[in-house]
Amino acid sequence: MEKSAQLELDNQLCFALYACAREVTKLYRPFLDELGITYTQYVTLLALWEKDEVPVKELGRRLYLDSGTLTPLLKKLEGMKLLRRERDQQDERSVIVRLTDEGRGLKDRAAAIPERVFCQTSLSPGDIVSLREQLRKLTADVHARDCDVSES
């Protein structure tokens, strides 16, 4: 690629990922509006539906969110009565996040969202799996490299 083309917007991996993520997230919006939650709240609930009663730090690692982003998000979900934050009995420094009955009950209402979203894409189920795996690998590779750089 020519040097001048390297700085063209359409040649940037970061912009292609950013634009795609924004458009895919928009596909979720009407379904999440029905539940009264945002996309970030949705992925947080997905993580908790998968594994409940987790330390805030573990949840942050799972979602790739720092405490400055995660704390207000959890506070909002707690205000919506979807989860509770409680100090760990064994380690007062740790805060455990637990779903409430309302938070667990929302899972049934959210069950159809993935299929409803994927029906709006042109991807086959195999394409979705392949793309998701490529993105997971890229995320892991970038995260590992980021950790290596910060540790040196």
Automatic annotation (TrEMBL):
<dbReference type="InterPro" id="IPR039422">
    <property type="entry name" value="MarR/SlyA-like"/>
</dbReference>
<dbReference type="InterPro" id="IPR055166">
    <property type="entry name" value="Transc_reg_Sar_Rot_HTH"/>
</dbReference>
<dbReference type="GO" id="GO:0003700">
    <property type="term" value="F:DNA-binding transcription factor activity"/>
</dbReference>
<dbReference type="InterPro" id="IPR000835">
    <property type="entry name" value="HTH_MarR-typ"/>
</dbReference>
<keyword id="KW-0963">Cytoplasm</keyword>
<keyword id="KW-0805">Transcription regulation</keyword>
<dbReference type="Pfam" id="PF22381">
    <property type="entry name" value="Staph_reg_Sar_Rot"/>
</dbReference>
<dbReference type="InterPro" id="IPR036388">
    <property type="entry name" value="WH-like_DNA-bd_sf"/>
</dbReference>
<dbReference type="GO" id="GO:0003677">
    <property type="term" value="F:DNA binding"/>
</dbReference>
<dbReference type="GO" id="GO:0005737">
    <property type="term" value="C:cytoplasm"/>
</dbReference>
<protein>
    <submittedName>
        <fullName>MarR family transcriptional regulator</fullName>
    </submittedName>
</protein>
<keyword id="KW-0238">DNA-binding</keyword>
<dbReference type="InterPro" id="IPR036390">
    <property type="entry name" value="WH_DNA-bd_sf"/>
</dbReference>
<feature type="domain" description="HTH marR-type">
    <location>
        <begin position="10"/>
        <end position="140"/>
    </location>
</feature>
<keyword id="KW-0804">Transcription</keyword>
<dbReference type="GO" id="GO:0006950">
    <property type="term" value="P:response to stress"/>
</dbReference>
